[in-house]
Amino acid sequence: MAARQDDGNPLARRYGATAAKEWQRVIAHFMLGEGFALIVLIVPDGDGARLCRKELEAILRSEQQRLWPLPIAAPPDLPRVVSSLPNQPPGPDVGAVWVEAVVPSGSRDFQQWDRAWRSALEGLNQQRNPLRDLFHCPVLIVGAPWIVPMFREVAPDLWSVRSQVVRIEPDRDSLPQRLETARQMEKLGDKVGRIDAPDPDFAFTEAQRPLFIPDGIGDRVSLLVRAGLGMLEQRRFDEAETALREALDLAAGLEDPLLHGLALHAFGCLLLDQGRASKAETLFRQALALLEECGDTATSRGVTADMLGRSLLDQGRALEAEAFFRQALALEEEGGAPATSRGITEDMLGRSLRHQGRAAEAEAFFRQALASKEQASASATSRGVTADMLGRSLLDQGRALEAEAFFRQALALEEEGGAPATSRGITADMLGRSLLDQGRALEAEAFFRQALALEEEGGAPATSRGLTADVLGRSLLSQGRASEAEPLFRQALAAAEEGGAPATSRAITEDMLGRSLLDQGRASEAEALFRQALALKEEGSDTATSRGITADNLGRSLLDQGRASEAEALFRQALALKEEGGASATSRGITADNLGRSLLVQGHMAEAEALFRQALALASEANAPADAIDRIRRDLACATNRAAE
């Protein structure tokens, strides 16, 4: 069977070189193998399955064969169709059988699909011998990563006869210039309103009227809560605190868990908006316990569970937050909450997953949230917030082109809904990042400039303006405009210091400023910045890979000053750090090449040649850009020629 050419491979474009190489294992099987085989193909999402299927169909078509995809549209189809396989062996024109059900673990019908896969695999396990006897071609089981442990558990005999397990996963190194996820400004999620308070001042005035009967205290608490939440919506924090504190004091003296729970919830909202997440968490836990005790509605309890999740997420406790967002969503579905309310909680659940690095699962929830909000005709601003988050989850997976479309949608929705300038600036910044990740630096520059102008117009915090100035500088540096990039990085650094940014964040900008100086031939100044950046990264316990990148840049600044022996030590340190941190093959190859250069300058020809060969192997393994490979080849040729002299 003839192999297809890899030029323009859609799997490589979508998921990176590693995924494309994994797929080559499948192609090799069809080129060399014959007869029955069981291939387990694990893909991150439905798009991955479709790409693989199209590739396999093209391969089989070239051999006058066809792919036989089993019709599986709903959970009950999977065990039913699979159980009938031994009764309908494929015809001679079938080159492979395709059994696909790729469902993310965050899907609403995940439990049904979980049961369906379990039943189907148990059935296949019992029919493994008939399958091997009756099928003349491979059978591909195509699913999400969560089916692997289930496969081993419920179908151990079938698992033991598998021919291959092929994993198509996004390659973290497919875009080596990707921007740091941790240095993004995230917007606040919109909230479910527990109480409608269009006129908080009227409610507060009514609450101050003299009380002539004891039962009126409960009414007073309700009015104060209504007033406080309305003032909070208007950002009148001091007045809101006065009203809500009085409500909480009065409610504590009542034997009414519902009113007490509502007052605790409201005061927790105030604390959370003031950035006092730990204290807010305590109040939300107390409120949820009281509301459960008095049998409050499922929808109401869901609102408090959602807010408890937010208080945990604000403290960086994403895993704990996830559990409460799932609880909130279940309660909202139980209580028949409006689609808008469910969409808001789905958005927050997606955020908790994204903060744990589970971008594919987060994507599924952001898509659900956007659909729920569109179904309920939620405000343009609310839909824009979720479109922005969906774009981020795609960008996290290296899918910058898809992310771009959602950032454009988010920006249009925010402009339609009259979102604040700061919010629109954040989205313009993210749109610029998606363009920069695609190598479209000139277009990215325009959006970064727009973002910076909007953030300045809206009075965004110094940290936010600093991050946008940093990425604007990067877009200029990518275009070879180092002298223009330099003042942007200096502006970013000043803003980061003004805003009290963490040491690691300041170090990243110092590193970029150093690069802009190095590109202008100012190696001595760059050296000082790289040393400072490395010290800050060590102080902030930054990743080994990040420290390795700065150590490499510091080595380059020394080499440019003719200090090859000192540079050698830094390049060795950089290579060790990158290996420790699991840096990409491309990144390690660059440092191995730089180390070779430092050795070549010192006349250590044999060792330099070995490093250049190592660099070439790493660059080839990673499908590095042609210019990078050509540079290493020239270095290798130089070392070989000088050794022969």
Automatic annotation (TrEMBL):
SUPFAM superfamilies assigned to the protein according to its UniProt record, in alphabetical order: TPR-like
Residues spanning the signal sequence: none
SMART domains assigned to the protein according to its UniProt record, in alphabetical order: TPR
Organism domain of life: Bacteria
A Pfam family annotated for this UniProt entry: TPR_12
UniProt-listed PANTHER family: AAA+ ATPASE DOMAIN-CONTAINING PROTEIN-RELATED (PTHR46082:SF6), ATP/GTP-BINDING PROTEIN-RELATED (PTHR46082)
Protein name: Uncharacterized protein
Organism name: Rhodopila globiformis (Rhodopseudomonas globiformis)
